[in-house]
Specification:
Length: 486
């Protein structure tokens, strides 16, 4: 909705403001005028006198205003399998959890989305995404359930409609009963785009094409998925270069590393963003920079699964678009994005760039404008500038937790997770939605986890074993050598 001739206005005053615009403009004490669902003006001091149609005036003393946080990678359904397989690496963790995930249905997907979204909304997320790739037969309209939950919460949302069609029998990781066919995955993805993708400036729902990963998706689904996305004009998302095991898998199966594989299947481009990208060499980073391929950096999940530290400082120096991601709550049980700001800063300082790796303002940019860029929405959200959507957050920084830190951006990034007093997403009617004591409505109780344990396959494998093609291929090579020897 564009600002009308006589808009309804909200005035926010007396707060510090970090605009995250191109010049990192900040105001020690300033104002923001919101007209309908857009930012009308931002500046230092008090708001201009004589504004009409003012429906609310907020004294934000003691607060920092920033753009709303943008989450660029998540799996909502994992809300109902938090705290399991806690001491596993990625492949073993996946193999342990696939059988449970493959039992998901519509009520579970809705409740998990409500829990995941509420957890992020209370921490300042105004734009969320969900990479959902588990669609068991007969499970109902999972995409509709997830999108419905985001609409109820008033959070701007991208559903990355995922898919898997490479199961154990084809050398993949998921069990056979957990995957779709190539044809059904593509048809359902196209139907989801047709039903839900909104191209308008203030769209609340967008859809991306998102086959899960090289080790759970056929090359043909990667290729045809990219073609579908480009035919429909939507973005492309997948997991990439997360672990050393994945790199080894790609080299064994495709004869090349993950980035080369993505390039060969049409998966590098300025309409693509990829989760993790931990194991990237210099030429991989250069390929991402050259093509404008974006990255969703998920520091806590990478640490939890012992995947490694992504080279974020090198990516930023090369010009790669980078945003932040929670990742699923089965590999980041907190489910919060505002704590990822701090974790991104701290974890990257453990890498080779040490204390020069990232500073507080770079991290705030990753969580806001960087995320907007990665989701293809940098013209609409991600910074506090006149004409952009009024997706902003007021962080309360005048309590015991932060009040002795002079610089508000330092307090937000280095300090404890700050409470959110106001988080408007969408039009004015939602702007009145406050979170006193930082508490959005609790989602309904979901499941007793013991029930989920009962859903597990009784005889599923519990650790990752090399897929069957590996010994066969090695045997063939050995046989050839033996024949040559003879
Ligand atoms: Zn993920």
């Amino acid at each position: 909705m564009a600002a009308s001739a006589d808009p309804q206005r909200i005035i926010i005053e007396n707060c510090s403001i970090a605009t995250v615009d191109a010049h990192d403009t900040e105001y020690a004490s300033g104002y923001i005028v919101v007209a309908d669902n857009r930012i009308e003006s931002v500046g230092a001091g008090r708001a201009p006198e004589g504004l009409t149609g003012v429906v609310r005036r907020i004294d934000a003393t003691g607060h920092l205003a920033t753009p709303g946080l943008v989450n660029t990678h998540h799996h909502f359904y994992q809300w109902i399998t938090r705290g399991l397989a806690t001491d596993h690496n990625l492949f073993n963790w996946l193999v342990a959890l696939y059988p449970t995930w493959a039992r998901i249905d519509e009520p579970m997907a809705r409740a998990a989305a409500q829990g995941s979204l509420a957890m992020m909304a209370r921490g300042g997320v105004t734009t969320a995404m969900d990479h959902h790739y588990v669609f068991p037969k007969g499970s109902g309209d999972l995409s509709g359930a997830i999108i419905g939950a985001a609409r109820e919460m008033g959070v701007r949302f991208t559903l990355a409609r995922g898919s898997m069609d490479r199961s154990e029998k084809d050398g993949g990781l998921p069990p056979d009963f957990a995957v779709e066919t190539l044809e059904s995955a593509l048809a359902a993805t196209e139907a989801t785009i047709d039903a839900h993708h909104d191209t308008s400036f203030d769209a609340m729902t967008q859809v991306a094409v998102a086959p899960c990963s090289p080790f759970s998706v056929s090359t043909e689904l990667m290729r045809q998925g990219a073609e579908l996305a480009r035919r429909k004009g939507v973005r492309l998302h997948t997991h990439g270069s997360e672990t050393l095991e994945e790199e080894q898998f790609c080299k064994e199966l495709f004869g090349m590393g993950p980035t080369e594989y993505f390039e060969s299947t049409g998966w590098l481009g300025n309409d693509v963003w990829m989760a993790h990208c931990v194991h990237m060499n210099d030429s991989d980073i250069a390929a991402f920079a050259r093509t404008g391929t974006g990255v969703a950096h998920c520091p806590s999940s990478n640490a939890r699964l012992a995947a490694g530290i992504a080279r974020v400082p090198d990516m930023l120096a090369a010009g790669v678009p980078v945003g932040l991601g929670v990742d699923g709550t089965a590999s980041n049980e907190s489910g919060e994005l505002h704590t990822e700001l701090r974790n991104a800063l701290l974890i990257n300082r453990l890498g080779p760039h040490r204390e020069a790796a990232l500073n507080a303002r770079q991290v705030l940019r990753l969580g806001t404008f960087g995320g907007a860029r990665v989701l293809g929405r940098a013209d609409q959200i991600g910074s506090l500038e006149a004409g952009k959507l009024a997706d902003l957050v007021l962080w309360k920084l005048d309590t015991l937790a932060h009040s002795s830190i002079a610089d508000p951006v330092t307090a937000l990034i280095f300090g404890a997770a700050a409470p959110v007093t106001l988080s408007p997403a969408g039009p004015v009617k939602n702007a009145a939605r406050t979170h006193p004591q930082c508490a959005p409505p609790a989602p309904p109780p979901v499941h007793d986890l013991h029930d989920l344990h009962h859903l597990r396959e009784p005889h599923h494998r519990t650790t990752y074993a090399p897929p069957p093609w590996t010994p066969r291929r090695r045997r063939r090579v050995t046989d050839r050598r033996n024949r040559r020897g003879r």
